[in-house]
Amino acid sequence: MSTKDLSDAEARERLIDLAAEFYDQFAAGEIPRMELPTRTKSNIEYDPEKSVWVYGDRKSTRSANSVSGARKLLKAAYTIEFLANQLDEDRSSTLRELYYLSESWDNEEAQFNGQDESNNLVEDLEIITGVTREDFHMRPEESGATLMGPLKLREQTRRGEREIHCQLDVGEGGYQIPNNPDTIEFLDHDIDFVLCVETGGMRDRLIENGFDDEYNCLIVHLKGQPARATRRITKRLRDELDLPVVVFTDGDPWSYRIYGSVAYGSIKSAHLSEYLATPEAQYVGIRPQDIVDYDLPTDPLSDSDVNALESELEDPRFQTEFWEEQIELQLDIGKKAEQQALASRGLDFVTDTYLPERLETMGVL
After folding, report:
1. Residue 5's pLDDT is what?
2. Mind listing the domains of the chain with CATH numbers?
């Protein structure tokens, strides 16, 4: 996969090389085709050595030997041309814009039937070329998550470089992570650990209570299921600055999957797991045991919650003694709790007691 050293010219060259392969196949009298890993759940494997999801050995071929296959290659060719021109002009666009832009293409057969189709094609091009969509200058629709803490960085912008301290030079909202975090250079820091937080309410509570100051903590707001940019910068903080990373979420199966995507990667982005996942990340809570120990306010598990928890018991990412105990306990008590449920013990409980005690037990403090 690409790195922050990959230039626009190199990314464009890889796209052009792919288009040239189609041309060479035509010239040789062959049916145009492109091969990529089969993108189905059955071809996703958990690599226990790397602790991430990866694609298996099965391959699929997109070939022009059928009308459907020919349409897919036609759409790929038009998209390659669009992305190559975008890089040449130093422009950018969103995934949503790509879908609508196809409506203006001169060949109706090249137009996308829906955004899922265009999104999947961009992912195909990532896999085949080894270039991330960020290096294609493709942006998601959602705004970036934020950082708050003792980190000084240098960011590349269209107006040149600028240096920012993620406490001193930002407001209460923090520093917004750009779409491509590889444009950031870490200059200096006083960070002892990175705390990834699921919800905005808890993120604001930690900052209002001065948790980032008192414990030299960099708070990363995940904004629910974290975007690729959030996972990428978290990995860089761990790998380049050798910082402990802990993940603080609600106590429900969907939040455990948020932790799983930070630590181990997701099935959807298996081709990027080594680029995005942080296997060293630890889970700090909310745990089912916390619901019992602190008598937290709860909601009952829904049928979908139960199904998700039972599925996680079969998920390689959660087949550890800790997770099996916690999930079995949650199924037994039939309850779930939010991060903000800790406020039932006072607004300062999370910063004065819960997190310090838990992080000390984990060896982070």
Report:
1. 56
2. 8-139 (1.10.10.10), 146-361 (3.40.1360.10)
